[in-house]
Amino acid sequence: MGVWILAVAALVGAQAPVDPQDFLEKYGYLHQDHHIHNAVEVQLAVRDFQWLSRLPVTGQLDEDTLLQMAEPRCGVSDEGSQQLWAQRVHVIFTGKNRPQHRSKRSFTQVEKWYKRHLTYQIVNWPQHLSQGSVRLAVRAAFQLWSNVSGLVFQEAPGGPADIRLAFYEGEHNDGSSNAFDGPGGTLAHAFLPRRGEAHFDKAERWTLNGHKGHNLFIVTAHEIGHTLGLEHSPVRHALMSPYYRKLGRSLVLSWDDILAVQQLYGKPPGQRLVRLPGQVLHAVLQEWELIELQSRPEALGKPVYCQNVFDAITIDQNQSVLVFRGSVYWTVSAAGSVSSPMPLRQRWPELPSAIEAAAFSPLDLKWYFFKGKRIWRFTDRSLDPGFPKRSSDLGLPRHPDCAFYYAPLGHMVVFKGSRYSVLDLKTLRQVPYYPRQLTDWIGVPQGTNGALTHVDGRLYLFREQQFWRFDPVKVRVTREGQWAKDLSWTGCIPQSNRIL
Ligand SMILES: [Zn+2]
Ligand SMILES: [Zn+2]
User: Fold this and answer.
1) Is residue 204 a known part of a binding site?
2) Using CA atoms, how far apart are residues 23 and 45, in angstroms rounded to an integer?
3) Under the phi-then-psi rule, with left for phi > 0, alpha for psi from -120 to 50, and beta for the rest, what region is 378?
4) What protein residues have CB closer than 5 angstroms to ion ligand 1?
5) Where along this sequence does the record place binding of Ca(2+) 2 (predicted)?
6) CB 3.0-4.6 Å disulfide test: which of 25, 137, 244, 492 passes with 217?
7) Where along the chain do its domains lie?
8) Binding site annotation covers 117?
9) Where residue 128 falls among pLDDT bands split at 50, 70, 90?
10) Which CATH number applies to 73-99+110-286?
11) pTM, to two decimals
12) Would 73-99+110-286 and 302-497 be classified into the same CATH topology?
């Protein structure tokens, strides 16, 4: 058994290393007794995993399979999901339940609540999000399910409650296999009825409106599904898919999620289904944030982005730094004064909220913004004719990590995962021989959320709370640290504390 583990460990490389055997045991594909598995068992387990993850079912631990194992996901085991799904589909075609057979868990005793009115309680709170916005997001997450089923939910702030939501770090008294693993990997887990517990990894960068970080609303809605008795779904875009997905434009609940909850609790009274697309919820959450940010003076003179992850950062021709998050942005002037949060659409009305990358180019004095499949270009506040354009028409990837103008190349550089692209701003075409591997940028990690060239001529790259300073002459990273503590021009060090 040792051989295949060694052979694949190298492939995962710089990504969060995942031991495939541990993974397959933890998520219910291999039995945990003695940790001894023959080749056939492992192959079957890999096939089951590939099926639920919508990968080609080969039984081989190939690179795609290993990368999928490293994706952020729910901590609940996938065991039994496949049979339950087959059962759900069978009901669609025949209208009746299939007689049960075999398997460790008996499906005749489905785990569910025997009442329709359930209460919930938020036991404690995540860092860096206000209680008001968390409460709103949790309420909306429960409402997704009550909109399509016979269930009704009510918050019981003081408890006792049927369903309790709590944030924990590391081990938290429900077994070492349920211990949280810090940022990335397992985001949250929950128990089937009628234990009524959903736990969230406190160490994640939770967000409700930004594009970077993990969206607490979507993860809560998924975990609520488990507390109601739902298991993981193999359906693409299902909320109950084990993998984290962003809040997008599509409907939050898929047909499979609705079918699963209705098989347990029936249809809503009056049979009227309400299904909200993600963009509606997104808009509501952002409006809420804006009202809240503007009504609350920034605590201790520090803007709120300082404690969290931002979506994008850039610097303009006056050396003002712009920091983008959700529907707002801040400016930090060259002299170091920080603006209050300003609505993105007030300055650039055509932009969507929660952009993924932004770059001001000193070459043509234009602003470039990236989100999803599209690129916007502005001259000052006016959208240039022909924009937004499709990224693919320019030869660029969708959903970039970050973008910046890079003087040594005289072009725009766009990072995405393990590769980077180079865009010629005059022709709006990708420069020949790109994309190339990110390893060209020695010392720069994958998954950065923003980058800019500061007045000292060096490139600064950001990921969550960390920064990397890349020296274009030495062509490698020469310094790393915590941007909010170490870089005064981020606007996060109160002016009185600054050493000049
Ligand atoms: Zn789950
Ligand atoms: Zn737990």
Assistant:
1) yes
2) 11
3) beta
4) 74, 76
5) 162
6) 137
7) 2-69, 73-99+110-286, 302-497
8) no
9) confident
10) 3.40.390.10
11) 0.81
12) no
